[in-house]
Inverse folding.
C-alpha cells in the first residue's frame, strides 16, 4: 500500500512540534517528521510519500531513501488527489490527513484515509517494536544531507527563502 502523508497537516498534529524548542520552526519540524517516517518506512517496508505545500509553481519530488519520497508542490491536496486518481486499483492508496474535503475526495476515488493522530500512534508503535527505536538517531539522513535536500527544494532559513508559513 502507498501512504500519502499530508505533511503540514500531520506536522501540526505531532506533540513534538509544539515543544518550545521546535514550535514555529517549520524546517526543524519537517526534518523531525521526515526522520520518523523514514524509520517507519524501513520497519514496515511501506511506500510513503510525504507531501508539503511548497513555493513556486513547480513540483519537486525526490526519493530520499528506501521506499520514501518527499514532494514539495504548490498544492498538496491537488497532488494527493491526482496521485490517488492515477493509482489504479481501489484500496491501494492510504492518505493521512484531517482535511475533511480531501478525505471525502480520496474516499470517492477509492482510497482510504487515516487521521494524523492515529497514524502517528501507528508510527510510534512500529518504531518502538523495532531495532529502529533509538533516541540517538533522530533521522536516517545526516544533518548535511537533510540541509542539502531542503536547499534543493528551496527551504533554507539561513537564505531567507522559507516563506511557506
Amino acid at each position: 500500500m502507498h501512504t500519502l502523508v499530508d505533511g503540514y497537516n500531520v506536522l501540526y498534529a505531532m506533540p513534538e512540534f509544539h515543544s518550545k524548542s521546535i514550535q514555529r520552526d517549520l524546517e526543524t519540524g519537517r526534518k523531525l517528521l521526515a526522520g520518523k517516517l523514514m524509520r517507519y518506512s524501513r520497519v514496515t517496508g511501506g511506500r510513503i510519500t510525504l507531501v508539503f505545500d511548497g513555493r513556486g509553481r513547480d513540483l519537486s519530488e525526490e526519493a530520499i531513501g528506501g521506499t520514501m519520497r518527499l514532494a514539495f508542490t504548490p498544492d498538496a491536496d491537488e497532488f494527493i488527489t491526482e496521485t490517488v486518481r492515477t493509482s489504479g486499483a481501489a484500496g491501494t492508496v492510504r492518505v493521512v490527513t484531517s482535511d475533511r474535503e480531501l478525505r471525502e475526495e480520496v474516499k470517492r476515488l477509492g482510497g482510504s484515509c487515516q487521521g494524523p493522530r492515529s497514524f502517528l500512534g501507528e508510527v510510534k508503535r512500529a518504531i518502538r517494536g523495532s531495532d529502529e527505536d533509538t533516541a540517538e538517531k533522530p533521522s536516517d539522513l545526516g544533518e548535511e544531507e537533510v540541509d542539502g535536500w531542503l536547499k534543493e527544494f528551496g527551504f533554507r532559513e539561513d537564505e531567507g527563502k522559507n516563506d511557506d508559513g
